[in-house]
Automatic annotation (TrEMBL):
Coiled coil: none annotated. Keywords: Carbohydrate metabolism, Glucose metabolism, NADP, Oxidoreductase. Belongs to the glucose-6-phosphate dehydrogenase family. PROSITE patterns: G6P_DEHYDROGENASE. NCBIfam families: zwf. This is Glucose-6-phosphate 1-dehydrogenase. The lineage of its organism: Eukaryota, Viridiplantae, Streptophyta, Embryophyta, Tracheophyta. The keyword Cell membrane does not apply. Catalyzes the rate-limiting step of the oxidative pentose-phosphate pathway, which represents a route for the dissimilation of carbohydrates besides glycolysis. The main function of this enzyme is to provide reducing power (NADPH) and pentose phosphates for fatty acid and nucleic acid synthesis which are involved in membrane synthesis and cell division. GO terms for cellular component: chloroplast stroma. Residues 111-289 form the Glucose-6-phosphate dehydrogenase NAD-binding domain.
Amino acid sequence: MSSLSSSPHCRSYSSAAYPISSSCNYGHHRTAISSISLKQLLPRKVSVQSNTKARPNVVPSEDGAVVAPIENETPSNKLGDGLLSITLPEEFEDTTSFDINKDKSTVSITVVGASGDLAKKKIFPALFALYYEDCLPEHFTIFGYARSKMTDAELRNMISRTLTCRIDKRANCDEKMDQFLNRCFYHSGQYDSQNNFAELDKKLKEHEGGRISNRLFYLSIPPNIFTAAVRCASLSASSANGWTRVIVEKPFGRDSESSAALTNALKQYLEEDQIFRIDHYLGKELVENLSVLRFSNLIFEPLWSRQYIRSVQLIFSEDFGTEGREGIFLSLKYFDNYGIIRDIMQNHLLQILALFAMETPVSLDGEDIRNEKVKVLRSMRPLQLEDVVIGQYKSHTKGGVSYPGYTDDKTVPKDSLTPTFAAASLFIDNARWDGVPFLMKAGKALHTKRAEIRVQFRHVPGNLYNRNFGTDLDQATNELVIRVQPDEAIYLTINNKVPGLGMRLDRSNLNLLYAARYSKEIPDAYERLLLDAVEGERRLFIRSDELASAWALFTPVLKELEEKKIIPEYYPYGSRGPVGAYYLAARHNVRWGDLGLEQ
Ligand SMILES: NC(=O)C1=CN([C@@H]2O[C@H](COP(=O)(O)OP(=O)(O)OC[C@H]3O[C@@H](n4cnc5c(N)ncnc54)[C@H](OP(=O)(O)O)[C@@H]3O)[C@@H](O)[C@H]2O)C=CC1
Ligand SMILES: O=C1O[C@H](COP(=O)(O)O)[C@@H](O)[C@H](O)[C@H]1O
């Protein structure tokens, strides 16, 4: 019998959505590995190995039966030698896929653009974190691919500078790093050369050693070379007998037309289910928690509509500008060509909005969730010029320190009108959200670094405490805040009585501050997304119809801003941004929830 490899951190469990799941140190994860489905096996006898530490994969035993790990072994199901025999009922028509060749399969991850900023800063560290947490498959190899000439040792040296170990458990860190680096290799090649990718293919095969090869390509390169790289990778380095998946980084075009052209080009070489468009905000812990909060707590879902919610605010701010950024920011003047609406709103904030506003999906399956998100996006009104305020930061001196303006950067044209700040009001024209303003605000070089979702509830009708108790309850309505970063938290602002013999009202927060509640370090978004891509879980990746709907909302206004050369409102570096944003909210009878905050 094939032995099932065990990881002390992996356990199996089952649920309707994720029938067989593994968990490394992150909590649950899905396994959707190609091979056979239970349906194909029925009504065959199934043997289950009672090894709680085993990975939850199913392998054939010598007599052809299927062997799977189980969580709990009882005397009644024990057959002997840790084996259990069950016959599956006919109605167990499950399409669950099991990896019948676990020991015979391998995953090769190729980081295309390995010499770049994102690869160094995020991708390799995330891969190491996955390895450190025992989340990568037993047989895996990592290849860096780029034009730069480098040896394996040089790549390892480069990567090692950005690897870190979890603060909460540094045990065996150096050892783990060495083991990880020994599984990293490099191949130098052009992005548009089939020959170079064929050479990579040869090297990958050597490492795969005859096992079933599953291949993941992470395109960490400028967008103008996405298609060439996909063409060459697909034609010359696709897996011959396993899966091939490609992670694509944003930007996915700069408007509806260019995005559609990119999608069509990718689809010449890849099926939709091979394309993993990454939006790293979807991998953030608190964004993942959004659906859990809403759908697993009775108290929220009934309030989640126009009836109780006055406005929803999606706020992103950074306390630094675009100066000094490396990688594509610097080399391709990316930001000046895209601006904050394309950089943050059309993707990160809109994705959060869609998750926030969607109807209950049929299940937690990736397609069911993405179907609901698309419906929200398709129900939205395309943005109008009057719904948008744009700004650009200018230089400012504070405490003797002088901060540069956006156009002071040598790589930015002096007359650039590119917005570094934008605020917008969006509407979802469906029964649940009719008339509720969804306000977005995103900016660079502001007074603070923060990303949060603020849900402002309506006032209490006929409120007994409306007057004379120290608080204007028409203003002091409940607010639910999901702080994505920093200091991840979920808190609800309520009105309460100030203790004492009198009757005075106060506002307080019921606060779930993650750092106080959990000692565990929160994984980086890239870790979650890379693991999902390896496991074939598509829930957090953007489907092409989602992308097209997202661009349809923003493209008209982006064109109008550019054609009419709308001048941005200038705001000092480190300020709260243009005052126009406050008027925009006021037009909808709303105040930005982050206004009163010190930081
Ligand atoms: N950096 C970041 O913080 C973020 C990046 N992204 C996206 O990730 C991808 C990679 O970004 P980043 O790492 O910053 O990019 P880089 O500019 O660092 O480029 C990555 C690699 O691509 C190669 N390259 C760069 N310019 C060209 C060119 N004109 N023609 C051919 N090859 C080129 C270089 O490798 P070599 O010369 O060795 O071939 C470089 O090391 C981009 O799509 C970007 O939009 C998304 C979010 C954040
Ligand atoms: O995608 C992008 O995100 C970063 C912010 O990401 P975060 O995880 O650090 O919040 C932003 O700086 C960059 O402009 C944008 O391209």
